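Propose amino acids for all 356 sites.
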């Protein structure tokens, strides 16, 4: 559940049309690819990079907009795009598709638009809520007290005879809190398949070739790199995808999706964002060395990106928690019978030094 945007991504079962409500022990071993894709920060496609780099500087026209310096053109684009209305983003994409010089100048803005569409949950508060979660025992910083009280009042009015649950079903009846908009009445929306404008409506004025360029500009690309990380922006902590691949004994598997690994990035997230009042509601006995039902990351803000995108001067402020998260994922999957597909933890060797 995305608390910030009042949206949900239902749990995906192994069969199409399967139900969407499960006990944790039923779905913990499944790869929740929708969740991962909603947090991935994309790169431009190789075709776009090659196209933009063919000519480092396109000679400006003798007059008109293209005769201006790149700095001035950038300022114009920034001023237009900064207003935030949807049609400005559409227009920037259409212009970039028809003019390589403007595409080069507006490359940063195109990347920002691409990220907003592909990484639709990036930076939002995310939580996996169990059936036994109660309003009065949510993560401390998830809701303001005034918002909690409004939910209590609405719950008493709408659901006087039902348990004060905050599961997805109850939240759909009570309404979620939109970012800065107070209590909303509409139920949470399923955004596992995001709403998109009709492509024909957006590109009716473009030629067939320009339309293909525009589509390529917007196509998200996730290169196979070895430095993909889950970033928790609320706590400044990250988990390396390489550590998950190493756990499965496949260090060279393709990141970030790890197609040949039993453990996935979604497992690392689910091990820390689940929240309910009792671990009995999750269908997994409390035999772990961590509180699965009180995830320390529940309600935090995330993206999945690469280490190179973390500013070098900020990396010292981040903490690598890969080792502890990997052990939590190992415990979860081992309990569900997937231990044979994971690499056994190395035994620590202790050397005894005797002085004579």
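Proposal:
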């Amino acid at each position: 559940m995305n608390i910030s945007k009042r949206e949900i991504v239902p749990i995906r079962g192994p069969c199409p049309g399967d139900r969407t409500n499960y006990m944790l022990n039923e779905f913990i071993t499944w790869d929740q690819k929708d969740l991962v894709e909603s947090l991935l920060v994309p790169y431009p496609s190789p075709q776009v990079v090659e196209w933009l780099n063919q000519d480092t500087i396109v000679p400006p026209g003798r007059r008109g907009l293209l005769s201006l310096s790149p700095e001035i053109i950038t300022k114009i684009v920034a001023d237009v795009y900064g207003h935030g209305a949807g049609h400005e983003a559409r227009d920037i994409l259409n212009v970039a598709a028809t003019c390589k010089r403007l595409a080069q100048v507006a490359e940063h803005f195109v990347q920002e638009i691409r990220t907003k569409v592909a990484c639709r949950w990036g930076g939002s508060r995310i939580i996996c809520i169990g059936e036994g979660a109660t309003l009065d025992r949510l993560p401390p910083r998830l809701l303001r007290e005034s918002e909690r009280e409004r939910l209590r009042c609405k719950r008493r009015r709408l659901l006087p005879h039902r348990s004060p649950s905050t599961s997805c079903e109850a939240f759909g009846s009570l309404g979620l809190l939109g970012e800065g908009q107070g209590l909303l009445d509409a139920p949470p929306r399923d955004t596992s398949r995001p709403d998109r404008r009709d492509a024909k409506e957006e590109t009716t004025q473009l030629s067939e070739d320009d339309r293909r360029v525009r589509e390529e500009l917007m196509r998200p690309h996730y290169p196979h790199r070895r430095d993909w990380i889950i970033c928790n922006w609320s706590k400044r902590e990250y988990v390396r995808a390489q550590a998950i691949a190493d756990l499965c004994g496949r260090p060279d598997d393709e990141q970030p999706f790890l197609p040949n690994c039993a453990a996935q990035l979604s497992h690392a997230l689910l091990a820390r964002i689940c929240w309910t009042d009792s671990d009995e509601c999750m269908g997994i006995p409390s035999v772990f060395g961590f509180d699965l039902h009180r995830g320390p990351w529940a309600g935090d803000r995330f993206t999945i990106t690469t280490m190179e995108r973390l500013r070098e001067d900020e990396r010292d402020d981040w903490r690598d928690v890969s080792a502890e998260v990997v052990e939590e994922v190992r415990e979860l999957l081992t309990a569900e019978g997937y231990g044979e597909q994971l690499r056994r933890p190395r035994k620590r060797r202790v050397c005894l030094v005797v002085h004579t």
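The radius of gyration is 24 Å. The first strand starts at residue 7 and ends at 8.
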